[in-house]
Amino acid sequence: MADPSSYRPKPGQIPDSPGVYKFRDEHHRVIYVGKAKSLRPRLSSYFQDLANLHPRTRTMVTTAASVEWTVVSTEVEALQLEYSWIKEFDPRFNVKYRDDKSYPSLAVTLNEEFPRVQVMRGPKKKGVRYFGPYGHAWAIRETVDLMLRVFPVRTCSAGVFKRSAQIGRPCLLGYIGKCSAPCVGRVTPEEHRELAEEFCDFMAGRTGTYIRRLEQQMREAAEEMEYEKAGRLRDDIEALRRALEKNAVVFNDATDADLIAVAEDELEAAVQIFHVRGGRVRGQRGWVTDKVEAVDTAGLVEHALQQLYGEEKGDAVPKEVLVPALPEQETAVAAWLAERRGSNVSLRIPQRGDKKDLMATVQRNAQQTLILHKTKRASDLTTRSRALEEIAEALDLDSAPLRIECYDISHLQGDDVVASMVVFEDGLARKSEYRRFQIKSFEGQDDVRSMHEVITRRFRRYLSEKEQTGEWTEQDAPAPDASTEPESPAGDDGRPKRFAYPPQLLVVDGGQPQVAAAQRALDELGIDDIAICGLAKRLEEVWLPGDDDPVVLPRSSEGLYLLQRVRDEAHRFAITYQRAKRAKRFKAGPLDAVPGLGETRKQALIKHFGSVKKLKQATIDQICDVPGIGRKTAETVAAALAQAAPAAPAVNTATGEIMEDDGGSTHEQ
Question: Is the pLDDT of residue 255 over 70?
């Protein structure tokens, strides 16, 4: 690890102008490339106290051994040079989207004498017109097959084309009318190129004018009694309409736009792009990236724009680019896009209407992509084994923690304080052993005290269940979404001992205070063979009991990824329980406060009177008429209803706004 002060340039040496800078390691490899509209303050920010830097930035500057910069005239030039250097040097600390070369595009090789329509993958080539990308190659072939009836452009390879020219006979497509057979001179090169350009125009969205022209030609042919020609034109129109139906209509006008959405967590991000041309979704692609550098949504959008349009020019850059967040240097990025296109490009966040609705769809696709990526990554046995080994090594454990338990506290402004316990065995969630807790020893908000109580209760039960089966309680009940898989070992009565297995690693959601509370609880119970750590969400730091400094796992560590998944699952489960309790509290009625009145008799009262309002108006004698209700119970019910006041709406103390009773968002304090 290098000391940044050893290579820090003097402030007077750094120019106060736009530029691009490179950090290099001791082997002179470029490890990070960045840009700035003013180099002096940007570079100076890297050489402050290491404790004030983001962990990823701290790792980068301590890995580097030198820094250099290049001055440019404008922010647009800085953006262009940054993209070029990232592509050239592939720096390890820059965000790099995993290239989606598996996504096929429909390509028209306008750079050839006889343009060819084909499926293409990989980097784009100069002089080739691209449409898409598509999700599957077969989708391209179906579209092309329909359109060749109207635009019989060459689709054969160079070898087939040359062979047909030598023997003087076209291939099968030429005989069935799906190729104009330029190989044998049925059309001139100029006529064939015109067909290819019409094909491109149609694919680019200029469809209405062409179909109307064909319809006019069909009517004219029918009027002149050229019925065969009219029939062919009718079939051509139908084929084009079927091709259009394969692309969803999203806008009524001929909008050309790309919509970019980002789904992210602390470690990874997924980007989805929908390409809309002529008001229709013409293609879709997606990337996933590790968040190697300290980057927010706006930064991820800027990197996506660079990768998406860095090699593009002309119509490949649409008139409008819709994003979830504007880049920090919005003006420079918009100018760079306009330069790539050759005309103005609108870069904005959709605020209303169809475009906002479609952006929500793109966002859902990005979220699903991220979830699928994480699921695939988590299901790999080799990856899970490596993750457990990395955790054991980082925390100095004797062996890999095959059973991990994680605890999280959740509440809403100090009300309905609950906790969750989730279990991962061999790197996979074991939902049958999830547990949930109500905080019972005190009222109000105190995460540290709550954590101490939960750990104490859980491991007191562990010690007890070594010898006997514990009692079932509502607050320690199995999760509603847990499986019904039986747990073991079982007690003498056949009931499973639910807390009999100790974890090798206990994880708490939080930093030093929560870790210290968990350790204190175990010490008080005399348990000294369970490792403890905490995962602080903001910086993804791992805290150990008694340590003043956190353990920072490598950014690419599978161990860190597994700890994050465990922590996030505990957080999700705690919030789910907290919301359920809150909703139940909001829905509670005045009859719930009547002691000794069970659900059956409550339902009987409501059924008899029709509503609580009418029940309030009833006399004690009328209440006694309900089957199962005695006079003493009737008096208790009447007294409870008389004292019940109308429920006041919940109010957000921060904003003063009335909150809807919908089990809305709950945040962790």
Answer: yes
